[in-house]
Every structure is written in C-alpha cells, then in structure tokens.
Amino acid sequence: MSHTAHIRSHRKPRRSASTIAMRAGVAGGVLSTLAVAGASGSANAAEPVTQTLELPTLTADLAAQVAQSADVTQQAAASYQLQAERDAAAAKAAKQAKTDLAEAKKKAAEAKKKAAEAKKKAEEAERKEAAERASRAAERTTLSASSDTGSSSTGTDSSTSTSTSTATGSAAAVVSFVQAQVGKAYVSGATGPSAYDCSGLVQAAFKQVGISLPRVSQAQSTAGTQVGLDNLQPGDILYWGGAGSAYHVGVYVGGGMFVGAQNSSTGVVEKPLSYDPPSGAVRVL
Predict the structure, then answer these.
(1) For 155-256, where are the alpha helices, taking DSSP H only?
(2) What is the pTM of this model?
(3) Domain count across the chain
(4) Is 194 in a helix, a strand, or coil?
(5) Which of 165, 217, 268, 279 has the fewest CB atoms within 10 Å, counting from its CB?
(6) Half-sphere exposure for 250 (CA within 13 Å, toward CB)
(7) Within-domain flag for 15
(8) Does the residue 124 lie in any domain?
(9) Parallel/antiparallel/unpaired status of strands 257-263 and 267-272
(10) Residue 191 per-residue DSSP state
(11) Distance between CA 285 and CA 276 in Å, rounded?
C-alpha cells in the first residue's frame, strides 16, 4: 500500500459538462429575469398606471325602464308639438274671427245707413202722396161745391147726351185729345184751351167728336151707360163718388191709365188707375 493512499486529495471532483451547462443556463435565466424586471420597473416608474373601470351590464328590467323612459320623453315631445300647433291654430282662428267681426260690423253699418236712407225716402214719398191725396180731396170738395151750383142749369143735358150717337173712331179721338192736354194747368171752372177743371176737360174732349156732355161731374157720371171697372174701354168716363153725386171725373185711355185734370198742384196728368181708383164709369161712345 502506498503511503499516500490514505490521504484525501484536495482536488475537487470534476463536474460534468452537462452540469456546468445547466448551471450556466439557470444563471443566465436568472440574470435575464432580473434584467426584464429591472427594465419593467424602469418603465413602470416612467409611465403612469391607467385604471380600467368595468361598466355594469344592463339587465332586462333596466333595459325596459330605459325604453319606457325614452317612450315617455318622445310622447312628451309630441304632446308639446301638438299643443304648439293647437295654440298656433287658435291664434290664427282668433285673428280671422277678429277680421270677420270687423267686416261684419262694417257691413252692418252700411246696411243700417242704407236702411235709414230708404226709410227717409219712403217717408218723403209717403208725405208727398199724403199731400197729393189731401190736395185731391180739397179739390174734389171744391168741384163738388161748384157742381152743386150748376146742377139746375145742366139737368136737362143728361137726357140728350145718351141719345147722341158716336162716329167710328170717336173713342180714339177723345183719347188723343185728352192726352194732348197733359201738362196744362188746372183752374176751377176752366174749359180750355190753356187750362181745365176735371169736368171741363171731359166736356171739351167729347165736344171734339160732336157729343155734348153736361158741364159738371155729377151730371157727367150719369151721362151714359154704367159699366164695370173690370170692363173698361178707351173713351169711357170715370167718376169718383156716387153716380149722380160724383165730385170728380176723368177719361179712361186704355192700358190701365186715365187722364184727368186733377188739381192745381198737378194740373192735367196721365196716371194709372191705382193712383186714384175711381168709383165707377159710364160709356157714351
């Protein structure tokens, strides 16, 4: 045995290459980790950390509430719009109503003015007609009085007047004559040619055709055959008052018209029968 066999060697045992490589790998990995960590720490130190908030997830009930709220908002907006439209329509209608009212008031004022003018004209016409009636009545009273004074001297003429025959065309001649006298003056007791009273005009007209009539209206009203007012012919003598007591006479000229010496206001005129409806008529032609 060697004298050195029992002495332990101070030399370390040899490690295998794989072990050395593994240790080197581990060490490198550790260093790499540290390097990354260091770099990460430097980066974290340089940049602020941003925190992310997670939004709550909508549940079914919350979604329904949101939808309902949206509907309510939409309905409110529609209601406001409808109200605005109604307000605008009401304002327009009020403005139109105001305009219509003003127009109606204007038309009413015009109608009132026209009615007042028409009433005034009607009153004037009525006053004029009343004055004419009064004048005719007064004139008839005068004629009646004058006829009474002359009745005794003309009483015999009535019998001869009915016996006098007429020639063909005499009625036309009588009508033509009296119409030619229209516009001439009325003078009580006048027999022409520039002025007449009522019986003087009738007497002068029939004298043109050869018929002699009494001078006064009372006698002239019975000088011929009595005829109805619905059966008149041109040339018939019209009278006012009773037959035999007439206070006014005239000549029917046809077409619902007569000619008479009415009064001092009108003179000899041609008027419709409605102007002064007669009481009766006699026919001598």
Answers:
(1) 157-163, 170-180, 198-207, 217-220
(2) 0.45
(3) 1
(4) coil
(5) 165
(6) 31
(7) no
(8) yes
(9) antiparallel
(10) B
(11) 24
